[in-house]
Amino acid sequence: MKNIRYITFLLLGIFAMSCSDDLLDKLPEDEISPEQYWKTPNDLALFLNQFYTTFPVHNGWNGGIFEFDNNSDNLADVSINTRFVGSNNTAPTSDGTWNGNYSNIRNVNYYLENSATAEGPDDLINAYNGEAYFFRAMFYFELLQKFGGVPYIDKVLNTDSPELMSARIPRNELATKIIEDLDRAIAGLQPKASTEAFRVHRGMALALKSNVALYEGTWEKYHEGTPFAAPTNESTKFLQWAADAAETLINEGNYTLYNNGEENTYWSLFNKVDYSGVSEVMFWKKYDTSEGVDHRVGHYIPQNGAGTGVTKSLVDSYLSIDGLPIGVSLLYSSSQESSLSDIVVNRDPRLAQTIATPGDLITERAGNPDIFFDYPTFRENNEVVSTTGYQIYKGGSTDEAQRTESTIGAIIYRYAEVLLNYAEAKAELGTLTQADLDNTVNLLRARVGMPSLTLTPVADPNKAFPELSDLINEIRRERRVEMALEGKRFDDLMRWKADHLIIGKRHQGFKIVGSDMESEFADLIGSSILVNDEGYIDPYINALPTGFGFNPNRDYLSAIPSEQIVLTGGVVTQNPGWE
What we know:
The chain is mainly alpha-helical and about 575 residues long. The chain contains 18 helices and four strands. The strands form two sheets. It has a two-stranded antiparallel sheet. It has a two-stranded antiparallel ribbon with strand order 2-3. The chain is globular. The two termini are about 20 Å apart.
């Protein structure tokens, strides 16, 4: 077996489970030793700071978090998602998610083995320890989502540690250990109001617990009897944990939904530079050009197409303003599909605040004419082209200063998701009441002026999950609409076992043929703007003539990196379909 490099906490980043080629190093005499370091709460805080860079946030050159749904049926990226295509047929030798998370887990374990020597106020030290448990849970959750059960390591390993040859534990056991870490985090962390700004707090741990438990509970419920099932179906246990965690957070009353009292309240939530006074935003990343920390979200959204586009599937999910699906509402006509202006008429206001429509203010300029949206960006290069004609508006800012060095904050945790978690968990358990709906889903609907959801909604003839109740379909619809373009959709499709929404499908967009835009782009239709026989923009029609080839017997989980199987002599086993 290959040796593992054992380095100091000052270097950080070792990945013990990877069994790398590096040699064992002893602690250099000219470095600060662990015995010299772990003395004060500040030492603990400084060590934990490394983990804050692992949150999903805006990156430098595209639409940031608002493009995270490129891996789902909500957005059609210029680069086709290979997971949906099912074209990855060989396990990779190594994997960044595997290596990166185990490296971070090793460092958390190192912290937990040394932090007890620090002296200071108990509540502060307990809070920092709570951060460590939170991060370890977060890193293992990322592994669970991608790979299922994995080897569980909760201490720092040496080259001769028997745990180096640990087998994968069942996914439900891993999920339980993640919940146990989150319970430790919840016990140690303080509420947001008592926590230093931009540090992990109790509300985040409760939110993550509800996310983890809902994910595992629904995964076990809907994958039962498949190769991806847990050894025993513990879905009820996890769903109850999800509901309980969300209910605790709700009852503590520390968060409320944002509402600016104006028609654009949903849109305005996602383009703020400073979220410190927005109670719905539980945790966020701040950007500051004076410190060289910025991004280009304000340039790409909605100034141009950002190399992606909202899909027809997502647009069709939005209800009419009477609270009915467009398939039954008398307020909707299919003729609306031929006009970007008309498509949002009499629809859930969140649609018009998610996609750009003619007349939307794009940039407000001092001393120069303001810029308004008129047409999607079809005539640019592939970096910024609109793929579907439904251009992203959510997350955009009208501030001219945001067009170059953007400092729009990145929302990482928001209260709305906790409300949705609670409603879904209770619905899956069969214990959802009208009061529950009124305190969760209907708060989200009320914010945008939509009618309330009842326990007996009108059936949608085109419901996405025909085998499930109308109520669960509507709760899932609400989640898709409220959390659109925030990177949640792919994981939802995986845990719901929703391959019927992927296999043989292609992302479609605006119905441009016969529309009020056809003459404007006539020279591009059929060439750079690909369309199907019905006139809808169909960006993948040539590349995927038969639609996505997602393999339901393989692609729900990614392949275990082959080096892990080789280095453990097969103790670490491969996922189904990748053998």
